[in-house]
Amino acid sequence: MTADLDLQRNHKLMMRFFLGLALVLVAIALFISTPGELSDGLVRINTDPRNLFYDFMAVGGMGATFVNVALILLFDLSIIHLSRATITGPALAALLTTAGFAFFTTNLFTTVPIVTGVFLYSRIEKIPMRTLLLQAFMGTAIGPIISFIAYGVGLQLVMSLPLAFLVGLLIGIVIPPLSSSFLRFHHGYNIYNIGFTAGIIGLIAVAVLRMYGIEVEPVGIIDTEHRLQLIWLVSAIFVSLIVFGLLLNKGSLRDYPKLLGNSGRLISDFVVLYGSGLSLINMGVMGFLALAFVIILRGPVNGPIVGALLTLAAFGAMGKHPRNSLPVIVGATIASYFHEEWGTTEAIVPILFGTTLAPIAGRFGLLAGIIAGYLHIALVGHVLPLHGGLNLYNSGFSGGFVAAVMVPLIEAGRNVIERRK
Q: At what angle do helices 35-47 and 108-125 cross, to 10 degrees?
């Protein structure tokens, strides 16, 4: 009973925390941009066809991007409130992840239809919406299909806009059952399970579009002017997470070693297992580790990089921690070192997102994690053309295949060794 009361109390505090974050972003936007600039930037953010690496900082400007992030946060918080959900690990991970992707490619235009579709699925199946928040929020990974149909196929808006909305509804309806089914494909060792689901949907969508002669090519528009400002922003977010976590946990780190011993295999809800305080602390720690990695490489800090940093931190509430993530980062870095684009956005983002395979290191050890990270980099670029960049969680797509191959082989090898013993 006490644990339930603490969870409810912490839920209210976390709702206020993210509400405060959204309001601070709006205040910063109003300080650095005029209303006209914000309006024009938001129109561009919501009306351009886009896919992977479409940096809103370059497209709409910093102020409009901050407002876009705030709008996504406020929308998600509203859904959480209306569904009477309690913020645990999945909701916490989804909140910060969608905020990160609102720096590039995610907006309300592509979010609302998918979340509405998941709501329709909950009504059809008579399942409480609060149990489907992860699918609803993370399902926006496939949102670029909506904007591409609305603005990229050459139809008149009177036809393309309703068609795009209907496609978004359909995607939202099919994501929950598909994601549950695909979880068995990689045995829960790919944390971005919705990313794998979105990849399959994107693969089918691109195949259908190509039947009608419509090609979908990945687009790269990257901001190069706001590195220092974004470093300060994400640092402030990570510090806030750690301080807030310490306050909730009364300054204690007593159970943090237990969290570090968790394999991270889906579904590992750190909020339920170890408390909101330790989860927030772990999120901040993961964020700073990722940021330090980018700075050591002297890499850029732009919309996609910020999205990757916030996503890595977000899943500090649902499976990731330094012990199971660092081996994967090492393996991915080794593989990327020989890449001709070493140190670029295109090289760094897959390394950070490769931590989707952290449960492999958590369950099978250091060497398995390094191999998983290495194979992820080998595969991630090759699966991108399959969905044309319409799946924002491309690493979740490739990670699903890596886990599906590695886990059965490792377990088979262990069984052989055990039998011989």
A: 60
